[in-house]
Amino acid sequence: MNKKIVIAGLLALFAIAGAGCASKQTAAPTQETQTPAAPHSTSEQTAPDPSAQPTENNGAAQTPTSPSTEPTKTKTETEKSGDHQTQQITVYYTDTQENGLKEEKKEITYPSELEKYQKAFEALQKSGNSALIPLWSDKISVHKIKLDNGALTFDISLPDEARLGAGGEELAIDALKKTMFQFNEIKTLDLLVDGQSLESLMGHVDLDHPMSR
């Protein structure tokens, strides 16, 4: 009888102990499934977008400065610097017998309009052909050239060794007129000697002031 009671008591203890273990095993899995959820939720809320900030910085760094107007200015400067002009003209001489005027084509280069007339006059003083004789000596110098509304004025020096006879003087004046009047902008031509309007250039032929086409 006492053995039955002892056995029954042991069985009751085992049953209570088994129930306690079962309860602990059931609670444990519930905590394990909930634990991962918390860190996952926190990560989505706090993790920064790695591409957001660099994109804004790059945009700021590349903000333009337009490639500039400097090349255009240089070109423009380069375009404003005055180049010399070249023109082919006809220049008039005579032959060794002074048989009328003989023409020759020449090329002149000049930086300005007044310089163009200076170069044309210098061309009258030197021929590129030994058969053609200049009527204007290279001993003649030009004091001043003036152009006023189509009126061209030459002020020259005329040394005695540059003077010609009557025939040569007439040809010289004609050579000067034909050379200068080929420029369309020239309407009249006046020739002064040391600033004076002489009645005759070399003492043989009347000199008009001004000479017209």
What does this protein structure show overall?
This protein is α+β, with helices and mostly antiparallel strands and 213 residues long. The protein has helices at 2-34, 37-46, 52-61, 70-80, 113-124, 166-180; strands at 85-93, 102-110, 142-148, 151-156, 188-193, 211-212. The strands form two sheets. It has a four-stranded mixed β-sheet with strand order 3-4-5-6, with helices on one face. Strands 1-2 form a two-stranded antiparallel ribbon. Strand 4, helix 6 (166-180) and strand 5 (188-193) form a beta-alpha-beta unit. Helix 5 (113-124) packs antiparallel against helix 6. It is rod-shaped.
**Major β-sheet, in short?**
4 strands, mixed
Strand elements, count: 6
Low-confidence stretches: 21-81
Principal-axis shape = rod-shaped
Q: Roughly how many Å is the radius of gyration?
A: 56 Å
Helix content: 40-55%
Structural class: alpha+beta
The average pLDDT value, as a whole number, equals: 77
Order of helices and strands: HHHHEEHEEHEE
Distance between the termini: 168 Å
The spatial strand order of the largest sheet comes to: 3-4-5-6
Number of helices, counting only DSSP H or I runs of 4 residues or more: 6
Proportion of beta-strand residues: 15-25%
